Amino acid sequence: MSALPDPLRLHRCMLLIRAFEEQVRRLAAAGLVPGLVHLCTGQEAVAAGAIVQLGPEDRIASHHRGHGHCLARGADPRRLMAEILGRAPGLSGGRGGSMHVYDAASGNLGTNGIVGGAVPLATGAALAAQRQGSGGIAVAFFGDGALNQGLVSECMNMAAVWRLPVLFLCEHNGYGEFTASADVTAGPSLLARGAVFGMPAEEVDGMDALAVQQAVAGAAARARGGEGPSFLLCHTWRFSGHHAGDRQDYKDDEETRRWRARDPIPRLAAHLRATGLADDPALAAMEAKAERIAADAAAFARAAPEPEPAALHQHLFA
Amino acid sequence: MRTLSYREAVIEALAGEMRRDPSVVLMGEDIGAAGGVFRQTAGLFDEFGAARVIDTPISEAGAFGIAVGASMCGLRPVFEVMFGDFITLVMDPLVNQAAKLSYMSAGGFSAPLVLRTTMGVGSNLGPQHSQSLHAWACHVPGLKVALPASPADAKGLFASAIRDPNPVVIFEDRMLYTLRGPVPEGEHLVPLGSAALRRAGRDATVVATGRMVAHALDAADRLAGEGLEIEVIDPRSLVPLDLEALVASVRRTHRVLVVDGGARRYGAAAEIAAELAESAFDWLDAPVRRLAAEDVPIPISRTLEPLVQPDAARIAAAVHALVAG
Ligand SMILES: Cc1ncc(C[n+]2csc(CCOP(=O)(O)OP(=O)(O)O)c2C)c(N)n1
Ligand SMILES: [Mg+2]
Predict the structure, then answer these.
(1) According to the model, what pLDDT value does residue A6 have?
(2) How far is the CA of A145 from the centre of ligand 1 (A)?
């Protein structure tokens, strides 16, 4: 892949996700996105920081707020955007949409419309990797809401019993839809949700791409070394609310101000400047490039044809 | 031909496929060293070991979801749900993930796995251990569904299901496990979507599924004594359904009764009857009839349980009504 040092790759990836989501927001506002769409703006550092550590033999499984994971993993932005608009050249032929993007070519077992539904898929990918001796690992991305699904705890238990090479990566953004996580989640420590199964559990600043990268690097090394699963609780925040167009009346201004100030993109930019990895013109050029790619994806998707009616019955069975 | 029990035939199919294809793994509760609560995996742990005969915790939803994920990445799991009633617990990974996977990913992924489970009345196991929920699986686009009725078909349908690139659900009637019959040695495949003519006759067709096949054959013996010759057809898989073979039989006999062990309302018998009414109307001399389980949970009482599902006597009575009509 890239010969650039990791921090620049991370930054490029986050910029692309941010620019892509902005295009999705505009398309949704223009009424071009069928159904609801969930943006991951604000959570870019988690997707970028985690996925930059993975290789081609690894697998990810994502969730309803998953465009960032798909892009970080290498999905073609044009085909991803076309899928979000339900168009024929989309990654799923326009029948899946934002919550059902699959990309076998990049080892992506899909975004998912079932909260918690992708966690067993990643765990199963880890079982397959272990039984096949492929050396691969799997990352299950899920939200704080999914942490209350029994299925997720079941998977953590089995992954620990079988020492599966899987990372349980919770993107804790404080809300499930319009309900604060704290109002529906018991216990003094969410880390205990992983620790209780005897796996390493770590709290991570999900607004710091380098911190995510470091935590994932450690967990991935353990998984590859046969030491089994880890639980990473990444604290982050949804800048755009639950879905594109969410008015977010349930958040207070002080909370918004506090989290906006922790935006992962300027934060990594400051690091790049301070370490001499990039100067302002270089950063501006990276941003402009990301915007070009995202605008091109949006233009491609808008111009893309709808599926043919005959596609209705295709691929029901393999 | 040598004979095997239905249970032995399934084990032979599993062992054969596991020898042929190292990606086939078994998952379920107590299926390892214990050999299964119905001895339905006996001996497999000894031959293939814990890496391929995987005892899961009692976490059906998570464990089956893991099987789905593994099937997306090169394994071919045969996942066992001990009692058919418990498929309620695996419904989300089955219905929302496995069944829709090929469609949602435009063929990018599929879930080549087998979900096997048991069902049926006759052992007084009560309301939460006896129900026949195969019609549920049939109602979900993207799933294939088979109900082997004989030892040879058990072997052949299992082998085909394991090789199929799609999720296949196999329902085994526990009362059939001890049924003996001839089973071909070596590779034996029964394709999904091919019905079997179990008995030829001219007066009426009985389409029967799973254990109802044995009851229908009993009924046919009784009716033959009265001079009524009925044809018995076993669809073997409900999805895909070999409608052509069923229609061909109706063209010969002009009367048809559909018998299924699941609840009657919105059940498998209802669907097959509707297909025949639409496709074979011109050859019918009487309305299509169906006979299925009563629309009640399965009671445990030794008096009440036998009243739930069709049996040979009820099938014979229904045929009488059919030929009189
Ligand atoms: C099984 C299931 N229940 C409910 C929903 C509706 N729903 C969609 S997203 C969501 C909130 C999920 O919260 P979380 O896991 O924290 O992810 P976030 O949206 O915060 O990224 C809910 C309840 C669903 N899609 N699936
Ligand atoms: Mg959340």
Answers:
(1) 86
(2) 6
Homologous superfamily (CATH) of B3-182 is Thiamin diphosphate (ThDP)-binding fold, Pyr/PP domains (3.40.50.970)
| Dist. CA A117 → ligand 1 center (Å) | 10
The ipTM is 0.97
Q: Where are the domains of chain B?
A: 3-182, 196-324
Contact A120 B142 (CB under 8 A): no
Lowest mean pLDDT among A61-65, A247-251, B265-269: A247-251
Residue B78 β-bridge partners: B26, B114
Q: Is the CB of A86 under 6 A from ligand 1?
A: no
pLDDT digits (tens, 9 = 90+) for A60-70: 999 999 999 99
Atom of ligand 1 nearest to the CA of A173: 20
Q: CB pairs below 8 Å between A and B: how many?
A: 146
Determine whether the shortest distance from the Cβ of A90 to ligand 1 is under 6 A: no
**Residue A5 — very low, low, confident or very high, per pLDDT cuts 50/70/90?**
low
Give domain A7-303's CATH architecture.
3-Layer(aba) Sandwich (3.40)
| Tens digit of each residue's pLDDT (9 = 90 or more) over B106-154 | 999 999 999 999 999 999 999 999 999 999 999 999 999 999 999 999 9
Task: State whether A109 and B142 contact (CB < 8 Å).
Answer: no
Q: Say if B3-182 and B196-324 have the same CATH topology.
A: yes
Q: Residue A141: which residues within 8 A CB-CB, separation 6 or more?
A: A46, A47, A50, A60, A61, A62, A63, A66, A69, A118, A169, A171
Mean pLDDT computed over A48-64: 97
> Does residue A286 sit in helix, strand or coil?
helix
Is the CB–ligand 1 distance for residue A145 below 6 Å? yes
Amino acid at B264: R
Inter-chain residue contact B69 with A128, CB threshold 8 Å = yes
Ligand nearest to the Cα of A246, by number: 1
Mean pLDDT, chain B, integer? 97
Q: Given this model, what pLDDT does residue A4 score?
A: 55
Partner residue opposite B66 with nearest CB, options A59, A91, A120: A120
Q: Residue B28: in which H helix or E strand, if any?
A: strand B24-28
Which atom of ligand 1 lies nearest, measured to the CA of A115?
A: 26
Q: Where are the beta strands (DSSP E) in A47-165?
A: 59-61, 138-143
Q: How far apart are the C-alpha atoms of B110 and B95, rounded to whole Å?
A: 13
Contact A13, A285 (CB under 8 A): no
A1: pLDDT strictly greater than 60: no
